[in-house]
Amino acid sequence: MKYPAKEHALRVKNHFLAKKESVKKDATAFFIASAKYTNYPYCDQVAPLRQNRYFHYLSGIDQIAGAFVLFNVFNDKLTLFLPNIDEDDIMWSGMPLSPEDALKDYDFDEVLYAKDVAKTLKSLKSTNFDIYTTDTDEYAETAFAKLVIANDASFFYALDESRLIKDEYEISLMRHAAKITDNCHMAVMSALPIETNETHLHAEFVYHSLRQGSKFLSYDPICCSGPSCGTLHYIKNDDEMDGKTSVLIDAGAEWKCYASDVTRCFPITGKFSKEHLDVYETVRDMQAQAMKKIKPGVEWEDLHLLTHRVLIKHFLELGLFQNGTEEEIFDSKVSAWFYPHGLGHMLGMDTHDVGGHANYEDENIMLRYLRIRRKLEAGMVVTNEPGVYFSPFLLEHISKEQEKFVNKELVEKYMYVGGVRIEDDILVTPDGHENLTGITSDPYEIEKIVQKGLSKGKGGFHVIV
Ligand code: GLY
Ligand code: MN
Ligand code: MN
Predict the structure, then answer these.
(1) Where in the chain is the domain with CATH 3.90.230.10?
(2) Which of 132, 279, 352, 418 is 20 to 30 Å from the Cα of 17, by its Cα?
């Protein structure tokens, strides 16, 4: 089966026609450029190409630069413009994709070359077409840049609402990305004898991801140990692990431009310490309570706030919070200094995918970093990723009014853990949800996996997936 680019274009068309006022139904087109190769500054070496996700959504094409896609809303014709052939480049880069192969392998009605763009767009303009695009960044210097309408809010809305709901084909790609990622996390957990520095966690994940055919990760992996587990997007990944207790690894493989995003935590010794397990069980319960409620129609904000309540309940039981009821502590918002981010985000071609409607200006600190501010719908893929952190930087923000609720002496005893986050990728289904992540988050199973790896000793034990 081909990547359903035409189906995607029709979705965008429907959203656009429903949204845009006084639209010309018989004279509208969408036009998007692929990403372009760029050299590193002052260097003749080309940077890796990251395909423009909007171009990819309407084409299914990944590693090709200098291409364009055009969709005619009147007759539903989808046209690809391949990059012009540069004879001199063939000896360096090999043969380019031919129009015949593009028609065979992809979902286009017509395949032309980039040199045909100007006359095609001019011909549409001559019949009074409005040609919408996201931006003209890749071709601003061309004459045809003047023929398109860039930055139209309704066009972005239509693209994002379409990308938000994944079809079966996209879900199959995301399932595969998640499967690769499961295997990588399994490999990292199992390989402690050869992991003595955070860089080794990183290396193990990348090695197993690449072996499975995933050439790019969805984002820079976050490989932390000890107190650095409290830094949310830690990418230094180069500290020694010796003498520490906890590991947090947040990493995901990409598959054909679709992301996965999974976090697992484990004990370096193979046995959770009391404090590490206390935090782990708190986060696991936060995730489980939210998970039970994931289904269409649910307001994501409600699930996020529910996880704050679960955190508060556990912290009261552990004695980390004190001098107040669950309600008083919730109202004080002090839990935000231990759980500063949102419960999750949309996942798709981007790790923090489009359509979530975050409000980073929100005055409510508990909601400011929540990347989904809307009801769940079937076909969305979201992450469920609560976390609890013991970060000196965050705890400094506890106000005079909030500090009576915090048992500072006891909090000190948890600082070495750094933090715990458990993150799974969840497809919202018509009846509820499906967890695309398969790697266990059960702390006792995790202990067994780590211990089994440790028992093999330093003799080069390696999980081959
Ligand atoms: N890996 C980044 C995030 O979980 O959002
Ligand atoms: Mn995430
Ligand atoms: Mn993550």
Answers:
(1) 168-460
(2) 352
